[in-house]
Design a protein that fits this description.
Residues 560-599 are annotated as: Disordered. This protein is of the alpha/beta class. The protein has 29 helices and 22 strands.
């Protein structure tokens, strides 16, 4: 039968989801567990079994890309004709079709692509000053309110209950909101939330429209159900009209858009709201190696709150891969340089650049990685934002700093001069503004200040021939020239390259190699996350980042933002490697430090913190180049064999292989250098120190054997 072909290759949990009877079905699908496969095969199975007709199915997704993928898979399964659309696309199709009936023969009003311009006009009408950035933030706040079914007169109370941080006083935001709605009506245009509301109104207030839509769509599938907002849920309820043939798919641990009005409450409450619902948990992860899966589980295992009730413990299904690399660097520039070097190595070894991603918490962090990758001529693309030096606020700030050269005294320290120049544009170092767009703009300018701190911290000494050397110019004018150089270097066009993206922009994507960078407290979780719920969302954001990696995963942070800066703590959600360096476990709040653990040491080549025992012994990362003295290594091996035979003990009792490699690489010349090698203490120094120093100095094992014989 054709249905058997649809069931072939499914795991037991997927098969349960696919063959579940008509009615409410909730598929809790962890990252990489094949949720799209499960829902498309469920639709195909029911269709091919004659249970439903494809034309009566409406599958709702959150992106056009996901909808297109769903249609492609259904066609391949022999089930063409299913409507797979986003909420907005489905609503637009219905409103446009029924507009003549709903609007007395008139066509559907024009749909605005963006709220910002209209919000700016509304702000002026309400007497609220709003530049382009403030207008974007006000638009976002209005979008949240409308998605949450909040009217202008209800905004102040609703915002307080939701602990919103609006860009202006709530009462003023409410005034702008009301003026915005009035302007839209006068101009005869609608926004995307109006589109959903119109679809709801058409069904709830017009019985004939409701009957026609419900006769057309009888079976519903909703993807990413943890991201549904109240307005979307109301539209879904209107479509259903009390029926229960609904399949939802979601993962509460990937709830990261609550600031937009999305809520996982509908996913969490699904079994309670729909008695008799079938609940299926997909936990077999086909995307990532067991090592990456283990780390993801360690991150989310400590989660608390409502979403944690539906936490899934993933089980990796792929062949084992490399352990995740956890690295600590002295500062962010050092971190970025190391990431760029590793990316170049991966590409040289055959990993396509398009299969590598560098993910960070905020877009302002991209500059360091753009610079480091450009320096090594590694191609990259920035996803979800402009390149750093292409951002309007950065370009305007650079103009302001060039103008400030004429007004700020030349002896003013560089960082102070940069802060003063930016202050003239209204930027305040200690007062990040409310509102997402304004805060992102503030962070971009803060990144310029960090660049100035980096530039001034370690000025190079430039040779000027035999006359001597001179310190590099660290004036504001020189710094402006440096910014221009960086901007020109980073503007090279690329066809395909490494992806630079924020964690939010990375949702729904995956790569062979993922670098999660800047994992410092204050960045993730962001300093703006103050409530328990906000902190848990930050944890889930890190979890989403970890689960983007298929094979190689690197996690890192710089101890300071710039060289010599204030030391920061690592992300509180960041798992630590166990003593053996293989099994990840999460740090527990309030846990006393394990005094038995060896002190952390740094790679002598790149400066990263070394966590695995073998790496600490070698004094370098396994990926950093070895400077092994092969001749010395051979002499050490012969000497160890002779010594072990003389003492009648196994060779590793004298020195392990890793210790021999470490000695041959580091070539210790005195006791302090020898005991700095992990595993060599005072006892072995006394036993073997003289012999090791002699071998390092060039002696042969035969010379040592003769000397021992004579003694």
């Amino acid at each position: 039968m054709r249905t058997e072909r649809v069931l072939a290759g499914l795991d037991p949990e997927q098969r349960t989801a696919v063959t579940a009877p008509a009615g409410p079905v909730c598929i809790l699908a962890g990252a990489g567990t094949g949720k799209t496969r499960a829902v498309t095969h469920r639709i195909a199975y029911r269709t091919l079994a004659g249970e439903i007709s494809p034309r009566h199915v409406l599958a709702v997704t959150f992106t056009a890309r996901a909808a297109a993928e769903m249609r492609t898979r259904l066609t391949a399964l022999g089930t063409a004709g299913v409507q797979a659309r986003t909420f907005h696309a489905a609503a637009m199709r219905q409103v446009r079709y029924f507009a003549p009936r709903l609007l007395d023969g008139r066509r559907m009003p024009e749909l605005m692509e963006s709220k910002a311009r209209m919000v700016g006009l509304a702000a002026a009408k309400a007497g609220v000053r709003a530049d382009r950035t403030a207008a974007r933030d006000l638009a976002g706040e209005i979008e949240w309110a409308k998605s949450s079914l909040v009217e202008p007169g209800e905004y102040v109370v609703a915002a307080a209950k939701a602990l919103r941080e609006p860009p202006h006083e709530p009462a003023r935001v409410a005034e702008v909101f009301a003026a915005y709605e009035s302007l839209k009506r006068r101009q005869g245009v609608i926004d995307f939330e109006d589109l959903l509301r119109a679809a709801v109104w058409g069904i709830e207030e017009h019985q004939d429209v409701a009957e026609q839509i419900r006769a057309q769509y009888r079976h519903f599938v909703v993807d990413e159900y943890q991201d549904v907002n109240p307005l979307q849920q109301r539209l879904l309820d209107a479509w259903l009209g009390g029926r229960d043939d609904l399949t939802v798919v979601g993962d509460a641990s990937q709830t990261i858009y609550s600031f937009t009005g999305a809520t996982s409450a509908y996913l969490i409450d699904f079994p309670r709201q729909r008695p008799g619902a079938v609940v299926v948990r997909l936990v077999r992860d086909y995307r990532s190696t067991p090592q990456v899966v283990g780390l993801a589980n360690a991150v989310i295992r400590q989660a608390r709150g409502t979403e944690a009730k539906l936490r899934l413990e993933l089980v990796g299904q792929r062949e084992p891969g490399p352990e995740p690399e956890l690295k600590i660097f002295p500062d962010e520039p050092g971190e970025a340089a190391a990431v760029a070097r590793r990316c170049r190595e991966l590409i040289a070894a055959g990993t396509p650049a398009s299969e590598i991603a560098v993910l960070f918490r905020t877009n302002a962090q991209s500059e360091a990685y753009e610079e480091a990758l450009a320096e090594l001529e590694v191609p990259y693309v920035v996803r979800g934002a402009e390149r750093f030096f292409e951002r309007p606020e950065v370009r305007q700030a650079m103009v302001a700093m060039r103008a400030a050269v004429r007004s700020i005294p030349g002896e003013t320290p560089l960082v102070e001069a940069v802060v003063e120049a930016l202050a003239a544009r209204g930027w305040s170092r200690d007062q990040p503004p409310p509102g997402g767009a304004a805060r992102e703009q503030w962070e971009a300018l803060a990144a310029l200040v960090a660049l100035a701190e980096e530039y001034a911290a370690e000025p190079e000494i430039l040779p000027i021939g035999e006359a001597g050397r001179v310190q590099r110019d660290v004036s504001l004018a020189a710094f402006n020239d440096e910014l221009i150089r960086r901007a020109e270097q980073q503007h090279a066009p690329t066809v395909a390259g490494i992806t630079l993206a924020s964690l939010h922009s990375a949702k729904g994507l995956e790569w062979d190699a993922v670098f999660l960078v800047g994992l410092a407290d204050g960045t993730i979780p962001t300093t703006y996350a103050k409530t328990a719920e906000q902190l848990e969302e930050e944890r889930r954001l890190l979890y989403v980042g970890v689960t983007r990696a298929r094979h190689l995963l690197w996690l890192s942070y710089g101890q300071s933002r710039s060289p010599g800066g204030r030391t920061r703590r690592p992300c509180r959600f960041l798992p630590q490697l166990s003593r053996g360096g293989s099994e990840p476990r999460a740090a527990e709040p309030g846990r006393k430090p394990d005094r038995r653990r060896p002190q952390i040491s740094s790679c002598r080549i790149c400066g990263a913190t070394l966590l695995a025992g073998a790496d600490r012994k070698l004094g370098r990362c396994p990926t950093c180049p070895s400077d092994l003295d092969e001749d010395l290594y051979e002499r050490l091996q012969v000497w160890r064999a002779n010594t072990a035979a003389e003492l009648k003990v196994p060779a590793y009792v004298v020195f392990t292989d890793a210790t021999l490699v470490a000695v041959a690489e580091r070539r210790p010349a005195d006791p302090a250098q020898l005991v700095a090698i992990a595993g060599i203490g005072a006892r072995k120094l006394g036993q073997y120190g003289d012999a090791v120093f002699a071998l390092v100095a060039g002696a042969s094992p035969d010379d040592l054997a003769q000397k021992n014989f004579e003694n």
